[in-house]
Amino acid sequence: MPGYEVIGNEELAEVQDVFAHGGVLFRHGFDGLRNNCFKVRQFEQEFANQMGAKYALAVTSGTAALRVALAALDIGVGDEVITQSFTFVATVEGIIESRATPVCAEIDTTLNLDPDDLHRRITSRTKAVIVVHMLGTPARLPEIAEICRQHKLVLIEDTAWGCGGNLQGTPLGTWGDIGTYSFDFAKTMTTGEGGMIVFRDEAIWKKAVAWHDHGHENNPAVPRWEDTRASSGFNYRMMELQGAVGLAQLRKLPGIVTAQRNNHDRLWQTIADLPGIELRAAPEGSYETADALVILVADNLVALRCRQQLLETGLATKILPEAYTWHFAGTWNHMPELVAAHGGNLQTAFPQSQAILSRAVSIPVGVTMADDVPVRVRHALEKALQP
Ligand SMILES: Cc1ncc(COP(=O)(O)O)c(C=O)c1O
């Protein structure tokens, strides 16, 4: 879970630094006032360095990151973008906002995109794939990246849940052509609201930089009010206070992930021998962010009993099962574009995903975990798993 647990003096000091340097809250210009203080720019540079990415662009949210990425790729009407059936609505919203056709594919027991089903859903109109590392566990990136390469599809990683994780040593978000991140208040590192995009390709990064800022090219030859433009765009600019908080949180990210991974392991070691549970699958070489510990139980009734018992013990679940409808495309009848893309019936579109998700229980893991939590989780699950 989250960066908010460790917000403190370091974030405050970075914010105060903005005011100590003149209080310019806009990421561009005002050079005479700001004494060379550029927090968003610095945040982008440090984020790119930490992720081993070539280029980074800070934006206002993880949803905006997806929208800007698709715009920079010129994806729009008539194009299909495939993502996974288990994600937050934002991933599909980003595709709908770009006026492309959203297509969802089944998940496998990693709870992420199933490479076999991805392969089946590719058509001549498919332009990009958005893979999501849900709840901090990497998707099967080697297989997915290979499919994208074979079919010449752009691979975007929605890394909203995967910031700070890696697969086989390569940071999540940098396996694909583009990685998007969310820094909303529930995420592993937070700026309250905010997001980041990392890119391999300089030309696409430049297009994104312009598009997220009304088309501004930041032409050094002219002042901003005379700036040149090659496309229209929108305003998804991050502001300086978010950049300041982001800098402090970024420095804490490795520690956050290490603490969560330790707590995840403590929890799993305490419950692993319970009959009737299995840990969600993770690809070989996964370094998970461990935002949650996800187990699969016998069926939906048992999953619901697990939640009930955890609540009665004063604990909770995280997303599964209680927020299933916000995260499973099979229930998104409010999205006509998605319904139409799946033949008018979402309910029967993802049987494999439904079978997995209906028996999944996700237990939140934080940076801090009281000593008695693993044993309390065990007792709750023992009661729920009784025949
Ligand atoms: C998978 C996924 N993608 C994108 C987003 C959107 O991020 P934001 O809340 O920063 O817009 C979220 C938010 O929870 C998410 O879970």
How would you describe this protein?
The mean pLDDT is 97. This protein is α/β, with parallel strands linked by helices. The chain contains 14 helices and 13 strands. The two termini are 32 Å apart. Helix 3 (39-51) runs parallel beside helix 9 (240-271). The chain has helices at residues 9-20, 31-34, 39-51, 62-72, 89-97, 115-121, 141-150, 202-211, 240-271, 300-312, 324-327, 336-341, 351-357, 373-385; strands at residues 55-59, 80-84, 101-105, 126-132, 154-158, 166-167, 170-171, 178-182, 195-199, 278-279, 286-287, 292-296, 360-364. The strands form 3 sheets. Strands 1-9-8-5-4-2-3 form a 7-stranded mixed beta sheet, sandwiched between helices. Residues 61-63, 87-88, 90-91, 132, 158, 160-161, 182, 184, 195 line the site of pyridoxal-5'-phosphate.
Present the secondary structure layout:
Blueprint: H1 9-20, H2 31-34, H3 39-51, E1 55-59, H4 62-72, E2 80-84, H5 89-97, E3 101-105, H6 115-121, E4 126-132, H7 141-150, E5 154-158, E6 166-167, E7 170-171, E8 178-182, E9 195-199, H8 202-211, H9 240-271, E10 278-279, E11 286-287, E12 292-296, H10 300-312, H11 324-327, H12 336-341, H13 351-357, E13 360-364, H14 373-385
Parallel strand pairs: 2-3, 2-4, 4-5, 5-8
Antiparallel strand pairs: 1-9, 6-7, 6-11, 8-9, 10-12, 12-13
Helix pairs in contact: 1-9, 3-9, 4-5, 4-8, 9-14, 10-14
